[in-house]
């Protein structure tokens, strides 16, 4: 309404005049039916209006083409991924390890290389299976980069489409462009290596507009595509789906309800609710089927392990470096926009659901800085890590940030563009700089090839091994060594009592979990004979006293003494460990076909059923915002 | 709503943050990674002696040495490098590998001007958790409490020449064609000379002594399997770090094998298995165990304490004490072990103490201590 | 032609000669048969089938027969020697046109001549332990088997094929002993131990065949210049062994085994036994008490090796001190702290020494 008032004022009509009744009339449904889309958009969007009047020929007054945004994403992240920058991240080798197993045993999710045997049905397979598939062309590591790049390219598309639920095309395009430079995205891709989280979030953002369209317009095509893309997102990452349902879909449902109530959309309130339920039921049923082996594994072995410390659960106010790592770097320049997000989000009724969703996600992203996540999540609080919530919060903020960008550019033009570009590049640059500067960074890349060669020669693979001080390089060793390990880099798959009874994650990082970590390591070493654990590779002298005192001897040195191999003489060869967690053959078949089929179906549907142009529902700017707001 | 909602959200955020700082417990974090300090103004105050000590130890835990040193009383006669060295250790000792994980403090006495606190510190180390009990004095200076830190005197070794006969065994593997045949050298002969199985509060314990009867060094592991009445194995465990694995000729070591959560009532037999391997070894360093005696400690527990004296010319980075206790029949009734967190420099001594279970303290008639050791670069 | 002597030669079942129901390439799928034929001439002829190679006409019958054998073996996972037996049994049945006469036994590594009947050309196959060969022969001239084809002792199968195939078996016996393998246990033995040293000798011919025929092996044990034991033992099934006590003196115990001119030697390290009469002495120094042993010897008077641990224990009224000191140059010594009246004892392993009582320091 205020936008309309301002817009009319800029057309030369009295600025201080009472235009509200006129604006109210124009905003009403009968009037909207008369006005065509472009005039409606012009009338309701102050920024567009003012731009159209004052700067009709300037490029930044129009929405940025989505193709151009994708090209920017490709230009920014393509080289970084081509340089394999994520190779040193925490989880990249983990994903490659999983993919490597699918590359060799597509239909057998039982992997004996970690934890003396574990089921890969404990982690959704889609991204790993795509890596496995592409590895035939690119090799494992580059296939990972390609899949990650696809996820990164899908993200601005998803942000654009998600933002259009809330704001106009121009703001949405700026939101999408901004998402390319998110610190949280760089954090997850290059520092954390959370391939599945990023890909799933991108897919989920792409599914939400279909959800909205289905609820408000009862479009069958949207229903089908929304469901299939949601299944695909679930096949990529389950946690994103579970929390996305509440944090992302909740506000969308709310705004659809508001739009129906205010007759901004054709559907009725009852229709919106009923269609939302149908959508939820179909998605739920599909996810149950797509990830059936996962749910079965979870039911059979619920996660009962002792909580594992993670610094994302720390209080950022009391741990400044943790705060920088999990708040300042992921948010970057968005921190400056927080007041605008809150005020503008609260000012518009349509943006309020998004604001509430953002705030809850924001609070969750603060980890232990507030008690809310612990209170709401209960035991799950000690299992989850919270950097992903920060990522989601930034994504949810982007539509409102898009509005901010438009307003700044309308007001300050080139200066705003330069400032915003600087802020975006600084945010991304800071996240990349932090890769090398932060104390949480993974240990520098180690040449583990001699370790792999050792394990693959002279029958050494008849025994199991562990690494100490290898960090994420453990997964790299496991990918290429034939021998199995009792350790592993995936907490949820651990079933060995020596690991689940202690509050520590990987044995290779035992020292970082204090007494619990070392207790787990001691427990495992004391049962070395039971597991055929004969070789230990040490990349941190910290562990040498323990190995000496408990009866292991140094037998070989690699890489100028950086890595040493230790052995115990009386260990019998490893034998297959009996486990009730071995998936049934039909589960392997399901796991190997359905997730991939669903993703292919999603691609097929996107190509087959092109996006129908949606009548945009513009942002309603509060009447008071006659003076342009500057954050 | 456009005014109210932002206010509500901001207020709720601030309240939640305040609750987390002052009301709700913190999650454990990873150890050994700098997580930084509290945002200025949110750190602990030192208005009481407990707060001052808590803040001081938190800084120690986070290795914020400057802040910790600034919390010392001006009456403390220690310079900052010495203060840091006392906490971080030196000469590759166990303390250099250790990180303060948790602590508990309780006041022993307090007045308005000074206080004495007993601190039980739990360190995480590569060889397991190590507890350290220390009494600290605090003084009220101005508005705040400060920790009085005594002067720390690091052991110094005078310049001297210590004659060493390098007595060590190296291992040369022969071929099939030489006079020793393809089997090369037989494994050392090692024998278990005593074994005793008892129930303890944490499960069954099998212990005893093992001797290297050979003329060459042996690398020894003792394993035990508990067998039930049907001849079925209940559990098998090894001596782990409760043994000196490298035994020189005629050397005797105690061993202890723990079976957590298993009672002896179902055990009909214990199958012992000692594995010995020929390894290169050195007869140095020689460590004497002096002034051994059983005493009650400050907490009333019976401990065997003494001094380790390094009689050789090389530094022992981490000494490990294994003590076997005998009853009046000469039977091994318990085996305790403990690590010394300071390095044993040549010709110097360091104190040690190992605990004796309360129930067994009265039965102990004799004891024998073996010193195991770790020296950097000599694994 | 009808078989002449069914006891010596068997005729290959005619049914085997019928066209095989399975394609000939079945043989290539048979692991067992493939393993037997590996590296053999037969394999060379049949291996190309999968690439469109057609066996020469004269091999087609045996091809079909072997295919069937291969399938049977693949199904039953029978041992390779069973293939030999099956081949012999079946191929013999079709060999009626010519005959082959082999001696019952042949010494390993010697040229051998088999007489044959017939006048045509034929193909001769020889299958034995680790050996398979094929050659063209003139039936009128007999078959000469070169020495290198019969080096391995064991049963051999000779097959002669012309229009039909005939076979004969013979045994290759080991040649004269050429080497003597000697195993002695242990490698290290304390002196003065009864039945502590044992040895086993096994004669082999020059082709590494165990010589089973009985031979006399002379065992001689010498320590320094003195003889500890001399004994002649006859091999039984190719094995001769002895057991004896260790000597009185430390040092190398040489074990010689001789079979005619063939000899073998091994060495056993004789080491000192447990210390005997461990005696210590001590004196006060500025640092405490310096205590040391007299030269430590076993009960035979041999010095105990350096590095052997002697545990010194100093007990006073309230405290105890102990040092595990290694023997160096025959003597173990340690510095003890004992301010008061002290009793010092020594032990090495399970052997105790004398006690030393030292009064309080004035």
SSE blueprint:
The complex is a heterotrimer of chains A (631), B (379) and C (362).
Chain A: H1 2-10, H2 20-27, H3 29-34, H4 37-44, H5 46-54, H6 66-82, H7 92-104, E1 110-111, E2 118-119, H8 126-138, H9 140-163, H10 169-180, H11 183-192, H12 195-217, H13 220-236, H14 238-247, H15 249-261, H16 269-290, H17 292-300, H18 320-331, H19 334-347, H20 352-365, H21 372-377, H22 387-412, H23 414-437, H24 449-455, E3 464-468, H25 473-480, H26 497-500, H27 514-526, H28 528-531, E4 533-538, H29 544-549, E5 553-558, E6 563-567, H30 585-608
Parallel strand pairs in A: 3-4
Antiparallel strand pairs in A: 1-2, 4-6, 5-6
Helix pairs in contact in A: 1-5, 4-5, 6-9, 6-10, 7-8, 7-25, 8-9, 9-10, 9-12, 9-22, 10-22, 11-23, 12-13, 12-14, 12-15, 12-16, 13-14, 13-16, 13-30, 15-16, 15-20, 18-22, 18-23, 19-20, 19-22, 20-22, 22-23
Chain B: H1 4-22, H2 49-61, H3 65-70, H4 80-88, E1 99-110, E2 114-124, E3 130-141, E4 144-148, E5 168-169, E6 190-200, E7 203-212, E8 218-227, E9 233-238, E10 246-247, E11 252-260, E12 269-278, E13 281-282, E14 287-296, E15 302-310, E16 318-326, E17 332-339, E18 349-355, H5 358-361, E19 366-374
Antiparallel strand pairs in B: 1-2, 2-3, 3-4, 5-13, 6-7, 7-11, 8-9, 8-10, 8-12, 14-15, 15-18, 16-17, 16-19
Chain C: H1 14-17, H2 26-29, H3 31-37, H4 41-46, H5 57-76, H6 80-94, E1 99-101, E2 105-107, E3 112-117, E4 121-128, E5 131-138, E6 143-145, E7 154-161, E8 165-173, E9 177-185, E10 188-190, E11 197-205, E12 216-223, E13 226-234, E14 240-244, E15 251-259, E16 262-271, E17 275-276, E18 280-285, E19 288-293, E20 297-298, E21 309-315, E22 320-326, E23 333-336, E24 342-348, E25 351-358
Parallel strand pairs in C: 2-8, 10-16
Antiparallel strand pairs in C: 1-3, 3-6, 4-5, 4-7, 7-8, 9-11, 11-14, 12-13, 12-15, 15-16, 17-20, 18-19, 19-23, 21-22, 21-24, 24-25
Helix pairs in contact in C: 3-5, 5-6
In short:
The complex is a heterotrimer of chains A (631), B (379) and C (362). Chain A has 631 residues and is mainly α.
Can you tag this structure with a few keywords?
heterotrimer; A: 631 residues; mainly alpha; 3 domains; four-stranded mixed sheet; two-stranded antiparallel ribbon; 30 helices; 61% helix; globular; disordered N terminus; disordered C terminus; B: 379 residues; mainly beta; Nuclear Transport Factor 2, Chain: A; Immunoglobulin-like; four-stranded antiparallel sheet; 5 helices; 19 strands; 41% strand
């Amino acid at each position: 309404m205020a936008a309309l008032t301002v817009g009319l004022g800029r057309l030369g009509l009295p600025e201080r005049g009472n235009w509200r009744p006129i604006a109210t009339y124009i905003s009403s449904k009968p009037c909207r039916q008369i006005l065509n889309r472009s005039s409606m958009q012009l009338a309701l969007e102050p920024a567009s209006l003012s731009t159209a009047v004052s700067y009709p020929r300037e490029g930044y007054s129009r929405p940025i083409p989505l193709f151009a945004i994708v090209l920017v994403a490709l230009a920014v992240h393509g080289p970084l991924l081509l340089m394999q920058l994520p190779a040193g991240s925490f989880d990249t080798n983990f994903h490659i390890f999983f993919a490597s197993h699918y590359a060799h045993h597509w239909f057998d999710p039982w992997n004996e290389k970690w934890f003396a045997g574990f089921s890969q049905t404990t982690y959704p397979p889609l991204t790993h299976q795509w890596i496995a598939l592409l590895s035939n062309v690119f090799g494992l590591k580059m296939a990972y980069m390609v899949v990650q790049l696809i996820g990164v390219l899908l993200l601005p598309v998803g942000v654009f489409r998600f933002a259009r639920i809330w704001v106009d095309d121009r703001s949405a395009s700026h939101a999408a462009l901004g998402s390319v430079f998110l610190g949280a995205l760089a954090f997850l891709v290059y520092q954390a290596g959370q391939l599945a989280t990023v890909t799933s979030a991108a897919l989920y953002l792409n599914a939400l507009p279909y959800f909205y369209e289905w609820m408000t317009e009862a479009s069958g095509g949207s229903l089908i595509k929304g469901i299939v893309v949601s299944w695909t997102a679930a096949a990529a990452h389950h946690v994103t789906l579970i929390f996305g349902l509440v944090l992302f879909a909740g506000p969308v449902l709310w705004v659809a309800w508001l739009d129906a109530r205010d007759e901004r959309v054709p559907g009725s309130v009852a229709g919106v609710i009923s269609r939302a339920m149908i959508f939820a039921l179909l998605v739920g049923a599909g996810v149950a089927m797509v990830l059936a082996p996962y749910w079965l594994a979870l039911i059979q072995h619920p996660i009962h392990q002792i909580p594992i410390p993670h610094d994302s659960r720390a209080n950022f106010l009391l741990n400044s470096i943790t705060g920088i790592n999990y708040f300042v770097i992921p948010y970057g320049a968005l921190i400056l926009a927080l007041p605008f997000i809150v005020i503008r989000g609260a000012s518009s009724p349509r943006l309020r659901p998004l604001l509430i969703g953002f705030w809850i996600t924001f609070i969750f992203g603060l980890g232990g800085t507030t008690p809310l996540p612990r209170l709401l999540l209960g035991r799950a609080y000690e299992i989850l890590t919270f950097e992903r919530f920060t990522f989601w919060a930034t994504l949810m903020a982007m539509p409102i940030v898009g509005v901010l960008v438009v307003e700044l550019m309308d007001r300050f033009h080139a200066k705003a563009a330069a400032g915003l570009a600087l802020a975006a590049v600084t945010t991304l640059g800071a996240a990349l700089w932090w890769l090398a500067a932060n104390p949480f960074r993974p240990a520098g890349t180690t040449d583990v090839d001699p370790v792999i060669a050792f394990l693959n020669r002279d029958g050494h693979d008849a025994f199991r091994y562990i690494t100490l001080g290898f960090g994420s390089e453990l997964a790299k060793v496991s990918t290429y060594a034939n021998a199995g390990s009792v350790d592993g880099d995936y907490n949820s798959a651990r079933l060995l009592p020596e690991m689940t009874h202690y509050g520590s994650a990987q044995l290779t990082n035992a020292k970082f979990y204090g007494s619990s970590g070392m207790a787990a390591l001691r427990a495992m070493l004391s049962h070395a004979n039971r597991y055929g654990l004969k070789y230990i590779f040490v990349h941190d002298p910290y562990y040498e006293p323990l190995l000496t005192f408990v009866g292991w001897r140094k037998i070989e040195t690699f890489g100028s003494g950086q890595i040493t191999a230790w052995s115990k003489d009386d260990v019998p060869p490893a034998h297959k460990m009996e486990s009730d967690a071995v998936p049934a053959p039909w589960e392997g078949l399901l796991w190997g076909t359905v997730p991939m089929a669903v993703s292919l179906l999603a691609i097929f549907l996107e190509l087959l059923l092109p996006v129908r142009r949606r009548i945009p529902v513009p942002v309603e700017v509060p009447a008071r915002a006659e003076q342009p707001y500057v954050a | 709503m456009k005014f109210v909602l932002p206010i509500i959200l901001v207020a709720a955020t601030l309240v939640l943050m305040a609750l987390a700082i002052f009301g709700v417990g913190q999650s454990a974090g990873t150890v050994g990674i700098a997580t930084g300090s509290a945002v200025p103004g949110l750190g602990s105050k030192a208005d009481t002696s407990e707060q001052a000590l808590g803040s001081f130890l938190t800084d120690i835990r986070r290795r914020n040495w400057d802040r910790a040193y600034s919390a010392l009383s001006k009456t403390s006669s220690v310079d900052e490098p010495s203060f840091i060295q006392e906490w971080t250790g030196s000469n590759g000792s166990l303390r250099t590998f250790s990180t303060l994980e948790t602590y508990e403090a309780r006041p022993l006495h307090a007045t308005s001007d000074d206080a004495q606190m007993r601190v039980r510190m739990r360190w995480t180390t590569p060889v397991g958790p190590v507890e350290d009990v220390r009494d600290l004095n605090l003084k009220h200076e101005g508005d705040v409490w400060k920790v009085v830190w005594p002067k720390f005197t690091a052991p110094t070794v005078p310049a001297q020449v210590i004659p060493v006969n390098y007595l060590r065994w190296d291992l040369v593997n022969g071929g099939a064609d030489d006079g020793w045949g393809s089997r090369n050298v037989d494994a050392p002969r090692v024998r278990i000379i005593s074994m005793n199985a008892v129930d303890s509060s944490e499960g069954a314990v099998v212990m005893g002594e093992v001797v290297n009867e050979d003329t060459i060094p042996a690398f020894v592991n003792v394993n035990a399997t508990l067998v039930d009445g049907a001849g079925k194995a209940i559990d098998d465990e090894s001596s782990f770090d409760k043994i000196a694995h490298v035994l020189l000729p005629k050397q005797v070591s105690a061993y202890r094998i723990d079976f957590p959560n298993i009672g002896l009532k179902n055990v009909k037999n214990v199958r012992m298995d000692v594995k010995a391997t020929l390894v290169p070894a050195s007869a140095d360093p020689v460590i004497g165990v002096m002034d051994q005696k059983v005493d009650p400690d400050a907490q009333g527990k019976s401990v065997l304490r003494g001094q380790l004296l390094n009689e050789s010319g090389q530094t022992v980075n981490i000494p490990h004490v294994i003590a076997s206790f005998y009853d009046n029949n000469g039977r091994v009734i318990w085996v305790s072990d403990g690590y010394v967190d300071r390095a044993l420099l040549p010709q110097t001594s360091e104190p040690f103490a190992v605990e004796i279970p309360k129930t067994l303290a009265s039965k102990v008639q004799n004891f024998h201590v073996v010193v195991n050791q770790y020296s950097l670069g000599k694994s | 032609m009808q078989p002449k002597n069914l006891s010596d030669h068997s005729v290959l079942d005619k049914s085997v000669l019928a066209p095989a129901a399975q394609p000939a390439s079945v043989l290539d799928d048979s692991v067992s048969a493939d393993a037997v034929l590996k590296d053999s001439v037969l394999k060379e002829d049949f291996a190309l089938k999968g690439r469109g190679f057609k066996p020469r006409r004269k091999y087609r019958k045996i091809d079909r027969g072997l295919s069937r054998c291969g399938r049977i073996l693949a199904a039953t996972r029978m041992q390779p020697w069973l293939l030999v037996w099956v081949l012999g049994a079946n191929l013999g049945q079709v060999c009626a046109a010519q005959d082959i006469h082999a001696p019952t036994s042949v010494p390993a590594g010697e040229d051998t001549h088999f007489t044959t009947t017939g006048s045509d050309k034929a193909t001769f196959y020889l299958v034995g332990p680790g050996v398979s060969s094929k050659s063209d022969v003139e039936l009128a001239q007999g078959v000469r088997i070169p020495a290198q084809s019969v080096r391995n002792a064991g049963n051999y199968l000779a097959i002669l094929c012309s229009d039909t195939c005939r076979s004969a078996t013979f045994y290759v016996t080991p040649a004269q002993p050429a080497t003597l393998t000697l195993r002695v246990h242990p490698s290290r033995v304390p002196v003065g131990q009864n039945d502590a040293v044992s040895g086993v000798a096994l004669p082999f011919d020059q082709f590494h065949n165990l010589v089973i025929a009985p031979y006399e092996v002379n065992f001689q044990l010498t320590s320094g210049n003195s003889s500890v034991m001399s004994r002649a033992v006859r091999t039984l099934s190719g094995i001769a062994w002895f057991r004896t006590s260790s000597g009185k003196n430390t040092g190398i115990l040489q074990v010689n085994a001789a079979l005619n001119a063939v000899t073998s030697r091994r060495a056993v390290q004789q080491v000192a036994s447990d210390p005997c009469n461990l005696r210590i002495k001590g004196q006060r120094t500025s640092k405490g008490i310096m205590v040391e042993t007299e030269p430590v010897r076993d009960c035979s008077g041999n010095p105990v090796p350096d590095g052997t641990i002697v545990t010194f224990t100093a007990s006073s009224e309230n405290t105890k001190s102990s040092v595990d000191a290694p023997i160096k140059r025959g003597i173990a010594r340690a510095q003890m702290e004992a301010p008061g009246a002290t009793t010092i004892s020594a032990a090495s392993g399970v052997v105790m020494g004398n006690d030393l009582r030292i009064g309080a320091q004035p």
